Amino acid sequence: MSHSIRRQVVDILNQLNLIQVVNELRGASSILKPQTLSGNIRHRLVGAEDQLPIPPTRLIYKVSNIYDVDTFLRLGALGYQTVIQTLQRNRITPDMLQTILDFGCGCGRVTRHFKQLPMIKVYGSDYNHQAIQWCRKNLDFAKFSTNQLEPPLSYEDSSMDLVWAFSVFTHLSKELHYAWLEEILRILKPGGYLMFSAHGDSYRPQLSNSEQAMFDNDQLVIRLQNLSGKNLCNAFYTENFVRNHLTRGFSVVDFIPEGALGNPTQDIYLLRAEK
């Protein structure tokens, strides 16, 4: 099915308030694929390599839109690798960080890998209460809290050295982009860092002609804004848009096209809090 036809189908389903139901059914059918079934059973019997518990499959799907446990674990490891490598290429080492936050942590796909850095205080926050309950019960090396679709977070001013948000801003409205950037700036220490992923140039072919025109003009493109905060809502923008509109209170330290290894092919931005 072409991108244009797929968009038309999605728009119709959204108008009929059926898009979320259809998405759940599509996901549920994928779990029945033989390769997915055998892989999930193997992981449930053998366990994860890091010896930490594996979230329920339905919860994995709810927060990451995948039913494949192997993919969930693999992409989580790549997300951790993204954080560490992006910091290292900018001469930031783990021993320079005291407190870090996985904003939009889901059921700990990336957070779980920070158990290997016991010198750092690890926090996680997410909109999904079930995911946070699971994390609190099973990832006791970190502290977790729930947040609402809009700010604030439960953390004190200037309390975090690093906040990362993978595949979070990719699913927010324009207003929520600005609101959450301001809130993250509040909780970052002076000189602290925000790392986030975004839908950039690699996603341009998926846009309609009118959306491509907006994108090429460095404007924000948002689909299904009425579902902001859910995986079905998607935001797309260029590097220029980020630099010109999303960096108030920040300086841009690094930009890595398609650098989000755990969220291919999203771009990675590293910003520094200037306050």
- Percent helix among the residues? 25-40%
Radius of gyration: 18 Å
How would you describe the shape? globular
CATH superfamily: Vaccinia Virus protein VP39
Low-confidence stretches: none
Record field, number of beta strands: 9
Between the first and last Cα atoms, what is the distance in angstroms? Answer: 49 Å
How would you explain this protein's 3D organization?
The chain is an alpha/beta fold and 275 residues long. It has a single domain, classed as Vaccinia Virus protein VP39 (Rossmann fold). The protein is built from nine helices and nine strands. The strands form two sheets. A seven-stranded mixed β-sheet has the order 3-2-1-4-5-9-8. The chain has a two-stranded antiparallel ribbon with strand order 6-7. It is globular, with a radius of gyration of 18 Å. The model has no long low-confidence stretch (mean pLDDT 90).
Nutshell version of this structure?
With about 280 residues, the protein is of the alpha/beta class.
Give the key terms.
single chain, 275 residues, alpha/beta, Rossmann fold, seven-stranded mixed β-sheet, two-stranded antiparallel sheet, 38% helix, 19% strand
Give the SSE layout:
Elements: H1 3-15, H2 19-30, H3 34-46, H4 57-64, H5 69-88, E1 99-103, E2 121-126, H6 129-138, E3 143-146, E4 160-165, H7 174-187, E5 188-198, H8 209-216, E6 221-223, E7 234-236, H9 239-245, E8 250-256, E9 267-273
Parallel strand pairs: 1-2, 1-4, 2-3, 4-5
Antiparallel strand pairs: 5-9, 6-7, 8-9
